[in-house]
Write a structure and sequence with these properties.
It contains twelve helices and twelve strands. By secondary structure, the chain is α/β, with parallel strands linked by helices. Helix 1 packs across helix 12, helix 4 crosses helix 5 and helix 6 packs across helix 8. The longest helix is centred in the last third of the chain and has 24 residues.
């Protein structure tokens, strides 16, 4: 399946979709450092990226005419800062709002399906009208905002078109969902809004993939069966933080299920096999595993516990916020994640390189969508598309 990606960042979304079987013909990204990082991986022979072509470009200037009718999937993560809980959340008043460009790409390329992702803040109540506007644009990409028209006026036009007979126009059946990456095997609690649209003439019958991992399973294996501690050769803690009623509910949720879900993955699962980066004589088999000094705890600024999923890895509006990018070690000390540890928590493969400074690499990783979450969605979309092609060939 052929695809292109907009706002590709350092490649997290692209890697997950490539692993699901989509082959990117072009990746567009305006940030020079992110483009350079992708190129370094291409030059280093990273297998999933070897056929990628990355273009440093402002998507507002990209001409898609050569792709029309030739691309199965468009994907991308329009810049999240206009909607991020950690940003200034100006939405449509923020010049970085690139959803109109995502809509233009859909209109001009007319793919079978698109997948766009963004931060949880996109769903906040104050943005509800604008989010509805985004969805209607994606559903009806040929209803173009006219010059000097406000977005509110365009919304009215879209609503009228949506509620009228619009046979013959380019239309997409669009759904969205807020997904927690931890529910799909990512060792991190990170919530992302995923928007998926299938072209209406393909008669798709799709829904988001079911969660495969659960917090309940992790709590059960820690505080009921004790299997988690045994797996990690850790002494079972003496004090259980759960009440007897909570334990009863966990037993019912897990033991009364024929196929219980897998447990949430933890920071220890992700980085426990790696040498201490503070030990200068440690094994050097891992790229980007350099120690960074200066981590400290203060009010509202604490790290991630080893035996739980990490806090959300973030880029930060003014550099890396240390609280979300620190680990709390077994002896109570805190230290910054290394670049490689952060990459593992975002489920980047170990042989995917980060070529910039610690600060810039952490920014790129923090802006990325977890690879494993993207693959879960991509696998589900790919299965649907293969089914549609099979049905078409049998007619």
């Amino acid at each position: 399946m052929k695809s292109i990606e907009l706002f590709s960042g350092t490649g997290g979304l692209a890697l997950g979709l490539e692993q699901a079987g989509f082959h990117h013909k072009a990746l567009y990204e305006w940030d020079a450092d992110s483009c350079e990082n992708i190129r370094r991986n291409i030059e280093a022979g990273y297998s999933s990226a070897r056929n990628w072509k990355v273009f440093q470009a402002d998507v507002r200037a990209v001409n898609y005419s050569g792709y029309t009718g030739k691309i199965d999937l468009i994907a991308g993560g329009p810049p999240c800062q206009p909607f991020s809980l950690g940003g200034k959340h100006q939405a449509y008043n923020d010049k970085r709002d690139m959803f109109p460009e995502a809509v233009r790409a859909v209109r001009e390329i007319q793919p079978q399906v698109f997948v766009f992702e963004n931060v949880k803040g996109l769903l906040r109540k104050s943005f509800s009208s604008y989010f509805n506007y985004i969805l209607l644009q994606l559903q009806h990409p040929e209803i173009i905002k006219q010059k000097n028209m406000t977005w509110e006026e365009h919304l009215v036009m879209l609503e009228k078109h949506h509620t009228s007979c619009h046979d013959g126009a380019l239309t997409y059946n669009v759904v969205f969902r807020l997904l927690n990456a931890a529910d799909y095997g990512v060792p991190q609690v990170q919530q992302r809004v995923i928007i998926v649209g299938f072209r209406s003439d393909f008669n798709a019958n799709w829904s988001f993939p079911a969660a495969t991992h659960s917090q309940e399973a992790l709590l059960y294996l820690k505080w009921v069966s004790g299997v988690y501690w045994a797996e990690n050769a850790i002494k079972h803690p003496c004090e259980c933080p759960l009440s007897s009623n909570q334990i009863k509910l966990l037993r019912k949720a897990i033991e009364d299920t024929d196929t219980p879900p897998l447990r949430w993955r933890t920071v220890r699962d992700a980085i426990g096999d790696m040498p201490d980066p503070a030990n200068r004589s440690a094994d050097t088999q891992y790229n980007n595993h350099d120690f960074r000094d200066g981590a400290r705890v203060y009010a509202g600024h604490s790290g991630s516990q080893l035996d739980a999923p990490s806090k959300t890895i973030k880029a930060g509006a003014h550099g890396v916020p240390g609280g979300e990018n620190m680990a709390v070690l077994d002896d109570g000390r805190v230290r910054y994640y290394t670049v490689r540890e952060s990459a593992r928590i975002q489920t980047f493969p170990d042989d995917y390189l980060f070529s910039a400074s610690w600060t810039e690499s952490m920014r790129q990783i923090g802006n990325a969508v977890p690879v494993k979450l993207t693959k879960a969605v991509g696998d589900s979309v790919m299965t649907q598309m293969k089914g549609l092609k099979t049905n078409a060939n049998q007619r």
